[in-house]
Amino acid sequence: MAKVQRKKKKPARLVLGVNSGTSVDALDIGLFRITARDGLYPVKSINQAIYKFPSKLHQALWDLISSRKATIEELIKADRLFSFFIASKIKSALRKFETTPEGIDIIGCHGQTIRHLPKDKATLQIGDPSIIAASTGITTVGDFRRADIGAGGEGAPLSPVVHNYLFPKDRPLGVLNIGGIANLTYLPGKTSKRKIFGFDCGPGNILIDALARNYYNRSYDKNGSIASVGRVINKLMGELTSDKFINNPPPKSTGREYYGEQFIKNHFGNGNKRADLITTATEFTAQAIALNVRKYIPTDAKRLIVCGGGAFNGNLMERLRSNLDGYSIRDSSEYGLNPKYVECAGFALLAVLAIDGVKSDLCSTTGSLRPTVLGKICYA
Ligand SMILES: Nc1ncnc2c1ncn2[C@@H]1O[C@H](COP(=O)(O)OP(=O)(O)O)[C@@H](O)[C@H]1O
Ligand SMILES: [Mg+2]
Fold first, then answer.
1. Which CATH code, of 3.10.450.50, 1.10.472.10, 1.10.10.10, 3.30.420.40, is assigned to 12-156+341-378?
2. Looking at the predicted structure, is the pLDDT value of residue 6 above 90?
3. How remote is the CA of residue 208 from the centroid of ligand 1, in Å?
4. Ligand of minimum distance to the alpha carbon of 203
5. According to the model, what pLDDT value does residue 69 have?
6. pTM over 0.85
7. Which of 203, 223, 225, 313 is closest to 275 using CA atoms?
8. Ligand 1: centre distance to CA 301 (Å)
9. Integer Cα distance of 62 and 358 in angstroms
10. Residue 68 has pLDDT above 90, yes or no
11. What DSSP element (H or E) covers 135?
């Protein structure tokens, strides 16, 4: 019987981080060098690639995510299709990065969330790490959320663990990730007695993208150009800012189940100008984030690092700045990480932590009862 070759623990590893978030926009692949040093794991970004989903796959994922009636057959077929798509794009990325599977130590792959049900403490990601490992020949870690659920948590957000390793500790910081959903992390800094924590704070790009799709047939509002020409509809803003989720205290996590089609229908369906709807959604997104920063992030963190695709929406960033007067708001590129690839860096890092057996403490974030090693390891 063939023996599984387990690579020895090395101080510096080349790791691929693979992500496709709630925006369902593309598969992002980042190549990172991660060094294990005195319990720290400094991450250096080396290269990155982005692969749009082919329309058949996009449709299959979208149908599963948005339909309550998807069948198990559809689910397992989409899982297979998506897993092989990931494997094939990893091979393309390796060619682009001028390396081979032998040059890569580990893959960390989040997969695509199909359902996230925080109240039920249930979550499902597809894109199977076994298929990816066997197809690429690279040990793959995936399914990062389940250990947290096993320990009593909601399984999301995981990013506070990652932000803690990625960003400096010389002062208290807030980290804002604007993916489909926006999440916030509080990093207390090394001299504080406070604990690291994080939470989903509400919509990120999800409402803006849905309106751009519905009213302009575009996948997003590039650079916020539509939002910059419309006006805020005050009555609608009043309605939106009373949204329960944004006002609730942490721990909290959410997804497309809440800020999906029904939310859009309930609030954005009437006879307003289409640009005004996008402007209002953008202002609401900024206000919801600002409200959560002011209400739930300790006031010693006056610097906010922004990452995720939303960092490229200039209008959203402008609105965020004007709603958070007194805060210094910068994007993660100031810390050597392209905002679009911070999540990839995170899954690369979580993969290394899994291989090294390092536990992550999400007790103040997801409500889990104890630290756990996150992820399933599938050896090549
Ligand atoms: N140049 C840009 N202008 C405006 N929005 C952008 C831009 N680039 C990316 N985005 C937004 O970022 C989203 C993708 O962000 P991403 O971090 O990949 O989210 P997710 O993790 O949910 O997939 C896009 O759907 C879009 O809303
Ligand atoms: Mg994405």
1. 3.30.420.40
2. no
3. 10
4. 1
5. 86
6. yes
7. 225
8. 25
9. 34
10. no
11. helix 129-136
